[in-house]
Amino acid sequence: QLQLVESGGGVVQPGGSLRLSCAASGFTFSTYGIHWVRQAPGKGLEWVAFISYDGRNKYYADSMKGRFTISRDNSENTLYLETNSLRPDDTAVYYCAKDAGARGGYGLDFWGQGTLVTVSS
Amino acid sequence: QSALTQPASVSGSPGQSITISCTGTSSDVGGHHYVSWYQQHPGRAPKLVLFFVTKRPSGVSSRFSGSKSGDTASLTISGLQAEDEAHYYCSSYTRSTSWVFGGGTKVTVL
Protein backbone atom coordinates (compact mmCIF):
# COMPACT_ATOMS: atom_id res chain seq x y z
CA GLN A 1 0.00 0.00 0.00
CA LEU A 2 1.03 3.63 -0.36
CA GLN A 3 3.45 4.88 2.22
CA LEU A 4 5.16 8.22 2.83
CA VAL A 5 7.48 8.19 5.83
CA GLU A 6 9.05 11.46 6.97
CA SER A 7 12.19 11.64 9.07
CA GLY A 8 14.87 14.09 10.09
CA GLY A 9 12.91 16.28 12.47
CA GLY A 10 14.16 17.24 15.89
CA VAL A 11 15.17 20.13 18.10
CA VAL A 12 17.42 22.78 16.55
CA GLN A 13 18.61 26.18 17.73
CA PRO A 14 17.52 29.38 15.97
CA GLY A 15 19.68 29.91 12.91
CA GLY A 16 20.31 26.19 12.57
CA SER A 17 19.58 23.73 9.79
CA LEU A 18 17.85 20.41 9.33
CA ARG A 19 17.43 18.07 6.37
CA LEU A 20 14.04 16.39 6.26
CA SER A 21 13.47 13.23 4.22
CA CYS A 22 10.34 11.51 2.94
CA ALA A 23 10.64 7.89 1.82
CA ALA A 24 7.95 6.76 -0.60
CA SER A 25 6.71 3.29 -1.44
CA GLY A 26 3.68 1.57 -2.93
CA PHE A 27 3.38 3.81 -5.99
CA THR A 28 5.46 5.00 -8.94
CA PHE A 29 7.20 7.87 -7.16
CA SER A 30 8.79 9.29 -10.31
CA THR A 31 5.44 10.09 -11.95
CA TYR A 32 3.95 12.35 -9.27
CA GLY A 33 4.61 15.81 -7.92
CA ILE A 34 5.15 16.05 -4.16
CA HIS A 35 4.51 18.82 -1.64
CA TRP A 36 5.78 19.74 1.79
CA VAL A 37 3.09 21.16 4.08
CA ARG A 38 3.59 22.17 7.70
CA GLN A 39 1.36 22.65 10.71
CA ALA A 40 2.44 24.62 13.77
CA PRO A 41 1.17 23.26 17.11
CA GLY A 42 -2.55 23.94 17.40
CA LYS A 43 -2.60 25.85 14.12
CA GLY A 44 -3.75 25.30 10.54
CA LEU A 45 -2.04 23.89 7.49
CA GLU A 46 0.58 25.97 5.67
CA TRP A 47 1.89 25.06 2.24
CA VAL A 48 5.71 25.04 2.11
CA ALA A 49 6.98 23.84 -1.27
CA PHE A 50 6.28 21.68 -4.33
CA ILE A 51 8.47 19.73 -6.74
CA SER A 52 7.28 18.30 -10.06
CA TYR A 53 7.60 14.64 -10.96
CA ASP A 54 10.94 15.11 -12.70
CA GLY A 55 12.39 17.65 -10.29
CA ARG A 56 12.56 20.38 -12.92
CA ASN A 57 9.93 22.66 -11.41
CA LYS A 58 10.16 23.81 -7.80
CA TYR A 59 7.92 26.33 -6.08
CA TYR A 60 8.08 27.81 -2.58
CA ALA A 61 5.95 29.82 -0.20
CA ASP A 62 7.27 33.37 0.02
CA SER A 63 8.32 33.02 3.66
CA MET A 64 10.48 29.98 2.81
CA LYS A 65 12.16 31.26 -0.36
CA GLY A 66 15.92 31.43 0.04
CA ARG A 67 15.86 29.42 3.28
CA PHE A 68 14.31 26.09 2.23
CA THR A 69 15.24 23.87 -0.72
CA ILE A 70 13.13 21.01 -2.01
CA SER A 71 14.68 18.17 -3.98
CA ARG A 72 14.01 14.57 -4.90
CA ASP A 73 15.92 11.42 -5.85
CA ASN A 74 13.68 9.31 -8.05
CA SER A 75 16.19 6.47 -8.05
CA GLU A 76 15.80 6.25 -4.26
CA ASN A 77 12.08 7.15 -4.13
CA THR A 78 12.93 9.90 -1.65
CA LEU A 79 11.95 13.55 -1.24
CA TYR A 80 14.03 16.05 0.72
CA LEU A 81 13.63 19.46 2.32
CA GLU A 82 16.74 21.35 3.33
CA THR A 83 15.81 23.92 5.94
CA ASN A 84 18.25 26.70 6.84
CA SER A 85 18.23 29.84 8.99
CA LEU A 86 15.49 28.30 11.07
CA ARG A 87 13.38 30.54 13.26
CA PRO A 88 11.13 29.75 16.22
CA ASP A 89 8.07 30.27 13.99
CA ASP A 90 9.27 27.40 11.78
CA THR A 91 8.35 25.05 14.63
CA ALA A 92 5.78 22.67 13.17
CA VAL A 93 4.98 19.17 12.04
CA TYR A 94 6.23 18.88 8.47
CA TYR A 95 4.22 16.60 6.19
CA CYS A 96 5.13 15.34 2.75
CA ALA A 97 2.08 14.86 0.56
CA LYS A 98 1.69 13.30 -2.88
CA ASP A 99 -0.10 15.30 -5.54
CA ALA A 100 -2.47 13.30 -7.73
CA GLY A 101 -0.79 14.86 -10.78
CA ALA A 102 2.71 15.08 -12.16
CA ARG A 103 2.88 18.88 -12.21
CA GLY A 104 0.59 19.71 -9.31
CA GLY A 105 -2.95 21.02 -8.92
CA TYR A 106 -4.78 17.70 -8.73
CA GLY A 107 -5.14 17.61 -4.95
CA LEU A 108 -2.87 16.15 -2.27
CA ASP A 109 -4.26 12.62 -2.25
CA PHE A 110 -1.92 10.94 0.20
CA TRP A 111 -0.03 12.28 3.22
CA GLY A 112 2.67 10.99 5.49
CA GLN A 113 2.35 11.11 9.27
CA GLY A 114 4.73 14.04 9.60
CA THR A 115 7.98 14.85 11.38
CA LEU A 116 8.19 17.44 14.15
CA VAL A 117 10.69 20.28 13.88
CA THR A 118 11.20 22.34 17.03
CA VAL A 119 13.28 25.52 16.80
CA SER A 120 14.28 26.61 20.27
CA SER A 121 17.30 27.72 22.23
CA GLN B 1 0.12 34.41 -0.44
CA SER B 2 -2.55 35.39 2.06
CA ALA B 3 -4.49 32.51 3.56
CA LEU B 4 -7.94 31.83 2.19
CA THR B 5 -10.78 32.88 4.49
CA GLN B 6 -12.88 30.21 6.19
CA PRO B 7 -15.28 30.48 9.16
CA ALA B 8 -13.61 29.35 12.36
CA SER B 9 -16.41 26.99 13.25
CA VAL B 10 -19.60 25.47 11.90
CA SER B 11 -21.97 23.15 13.74
CA GLY B 12 -24.98 21.03 12.96
CA SER B 13 -27.11 18.21 14.29
CA PRO B 14 -26.88 14.66 12.98
CA GLY B 15 -28.67 14.33 9.66
CA GLN B 16 -28.51 18.03 8.87
CA SER B 17 -26.49 19.67 6.10
CA ILE B 18 -23.77 22.21 6.69
CA THR B 19 -21.79 24.37 4.31
CA ILE B 20 -18.26 25.72 4.79
CA SER B 21 -17.19 28.69 2.69
CA CYS B 22 -13.69 29.45 1.43
CA THR B 23 -13.07 32.96 0.10
CA GLY B 24 -10.03 33.99 -1.89
CA THR B 25 -9.36 36.29 -4.80
CA SER B 26 -9.30 36.20 -8.57
CA SER B 27 -5.63 35.19 -8.26
CA ASP B 28 -6.47 31.92 -6.59
CA VAL B 29 -9.97 30.51 -5.96
CA GLY B 30 -11.64 32.71 -8.57
CA GLY B 31 -9.03 32.12 -11.24
CA HIS B 32 -9.35 28.39 -11.99
CA HIS B 33 -10.73 25.05 -10.77
CA TYR B 34 -7.70 23.84 -8.79
CA VAL B 35 -9.53 24.02 -5.46
CA SER B 36 -9.41 21.13 -3.02
CA TRP B 37 -10.71 20.34 0.47
CA TYR B 38 -9.14 18.32 3.30
CA GLN B 39 -10.51 16.72 6.45
CA GLN B 40 -8.30 16.40 9.50
CA HIS B 41 -9.17 14.54 12.66
CA PRO B 42 -7.16 15.35 15.83
CA GLY B 43 -3.70 13.83 15.78
CA ARG B 44 -4.12 12.54 12.23
CA ALA B 45 -2.78 13.55 8.85
CA PRO B 46 -5.15 15.42 6.54
CA LYS B 47 -7.30 13.50 4.06
CA LEU B 48 -8.38 14.75 0.63
CA VAL B 49 -12.18 14.89 0.31
CA LEU B 50 -12.64 17.04 -2.81
CA PHE B 51 -10.43 18.18 -5.72
CA PHE B 52 -11.11 20.24 -8.85
CA VAL B 53 -13.83 22.01 -6.80
CA THR B 54 -16.40 19.19 -7.09
CA LYS B 55 -14.59 15.86 -7.63
CA ARG B 56 -14.54 13.20 -4.93
CA PRO B 57 -11.60 10.81 -4.64
CA SER B 58 -12.39 7.13 -4.63
CA GLY B 59 -13.73 6.07 -1.24
CA VAL B 60 -14.99 9.49 -0.13
CA SER B 61 -18.67 9.56 0.79
CA SER B 62 -21.13 11.15 -1.65
CA ARG B 63 -22.34 13.20 1.31
CA PHE B 64 -19.43 15.53 0.54
CA SER B 65 -20.01 17.94 -2.32
CA GLY B 66 -18.44 21.13 -3.59
CA SER B 67 -19.21 24.23 -5.57
CA LYS B 68 -17.72 27.56 -6.51
CA SER B 69 -19.07 31.00 -7.30
CA GLY B 70 -16.68 33.78 -8.15
CA ASP B 71 -13.91 33.94 -5.55
CA THR B 72 -15.71 31.71 -3.04
CA ALA B 73 -15.67 27.92 -2.95
CA SER B 74 -17.92 25.86 -0.69
CA LEU B 75 -17.94 22.40 0.86
CA THR B 76 -21.30 20.92 1.82
CA ILE B 77 -21.65 17.92 4.09
CA SER B 78 -25.13 16.43 3.92
CA GLY B 79 -26.60 13.91 6.34
CA LEU B 80 -24.11 15.01 8.99
CA GLN B 81 -22.66 12.13 11.03
CA ALA B 82 -20.62 12.02 14.22
CA GLU B 83 -17.55 10.87 12.26
CA ASP B 84 -17.65 14.13 10.27
CA GLU B 85 -16.56 16.08 13.35
CA ALA B 86 -13.10 17.34 12.35
CA HIS B 87 -11.23 20.34 10.98
CA TYR B 88 -11.70 21.11 7.30
CA TYR B 89 -9.26 23.07 5.14
CA CYS B 90 -9.66 24.43 1.64
CA SER B 91 -6.70 24.92 -0.66
CA SER B 92 -6.15 26.59 -4.00
CA TYR B 93 -3.44 26.83 -6.60
CA THR B 94 -2.50 30.47 -7.18
CA ARG B 95 -1.49 32.55 -10.16
CA SER B 96 2.00 32.93 -8.70
CA THR B 97 2.63 29.17 -9.03
CA SER B 98 2.13 28.40 -5.39
CA TRP B 99 -0.56 26.89 -3.23
CA VAL B 100 -2.44 28.40 -0.31
CA PHE B 101 -4.61 26.91 2.43
CA GLY B 102 -7.54 28.37 4.28
CA GLY B 103 -7.32 28.95 8.01
CA GLY B 104 -9.45 25.90 8.73
CA THR B 105 -12.98 25.31 10.01
CA LYS B 106 -13.85 23.19 13.02
CA VAL B 107 -17.02 21.21 12.38
CA THR B 108 -18.93 20.19 15.48
CA VAL B 109 -21.73 17.63 15.41
CA LEU B 110 -24.18 18.61 18.14
Describe the protein.
The complex is a heterodimer of chains A (121) and B (110). Chain A has 121 residues and is mainly beta. In chain A, 0% of the residues lie in helices and 50% in strands. Chain A is built from no helices and eleven strands. In chain A, strands 2, 4, 5, 6, 9, 10 and 11 form a seven-stranded mixed beta sheet that branches. A four-stranded antiparallel beta sheet of chain A has the order 1-3-8-7, with no helix packed on it. The radius of gyration of chain A is 13 Å and the shape is globular. The model of chain A has no long low-confidence stretch (mean pLDDT 96). Helices cover 0% and strands 44% of the residues of chain B. Chain B is built from no helices and nine strands. Chain B has strands at 9-12, 18-23, 35-40, 47-50, 64-69, 72-77, 86-93, 99-101, 105-109. In chain B, strands 1, 3, 4, 7, 8 and 9 form a six-stranded mixed beta sheet that branches. A three-stranded antiparallel beta sheet of chain B has the order 2-6-5, with no helix packed on it. In chain B, strand 5 (64-69) and strand 6 (72-77) form a beta hairpin. Chain B is globular. Chain A binds chain B through residues 35, 37, 44-47, 50, 59-62, 95, 97, 100, 104-114, and chain B through 1, 3, 34, 36, 38, 40, 45-48, 50-52, 55, 57, 87, 89, 91, 93, 97-104.
